[in-house]
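Researcher: I need the complex structure. Ligand is 2'-deoxycytidine-5'-monophosphate. Inputs:
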Amino acid sequence: MKKITIAIDGYSSTGKSTIAKEISNKLGYSYVDTGAMYRAVTLYAIENNYFDDEDFFRNLLIADLDKIHIDFKYNDNLGYGEVYLNSKNVESEIRDMNISNKVSVVAQVAEVRRAMVAQQQKMGQNKGVVLDGRDIGTVVFPDAEVKLFMTASSDIRAKRRFDELVSKGDSQVTYDEVLKNVEERDYLDTTRSVSPLVKAEDAVEYDNGEKTREQQFEEILYIIESKI
Ligand code: DC
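Model: Output:
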């Protein structure tokens, strides 16, 4: 069967990574969580205290970009690749609210995006790959055979993210805080000057607000299989 490129873009907490993992496992494709890459860069910036200096944070980050190495290593037990920052597994650390609150600012830096996009294009150069993010169908792989654009209301998305954080043991987080973060990220992601989140003209818009995981999987697999 011919191998294709599958681009899954959309708003934060629309379940892009869940569906991307399921589809990549079903098809035997690799999976690239591009949001995890921007989150790993954010973690690096926090660890190096770049956020302490608002004026210079961009310059510091840009100067250090070649010191930031991001890889994915497949974990058999989990069934997907975990993200590594300079050889350290940071898969769980990068999901903290502290990172979520700062990542959109990092993702606005043009030089950061250029470096990440180049790595993503390399990871997907042999096709047989599912990538999820914000600019996959528009910038990273504008020729992807399948492009999906995932949506759901901000309430539903915040509820999902809140439940996920609570199930991971975060007892401090509140629903209102998560909703605020989701809405702020929507704003920053859609209004930034470099590669804003926008639906590619040829993407299929998919609202999963009222769908079960199984329904979603079946319907999206159907869309993909019609292209293979
Ligand atoms: O998918 P996520 O929530 O883990 O993404 C984290 C942030 O990274 C999100 O607020 C926007 C940014 N991002 C991006 O700008 N481009 C991508 N391709 C993926 C994520």
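Model: Summary of the prediction. The domain at 5-225 is CATH 3.40.50.300 (Rossmann fold).
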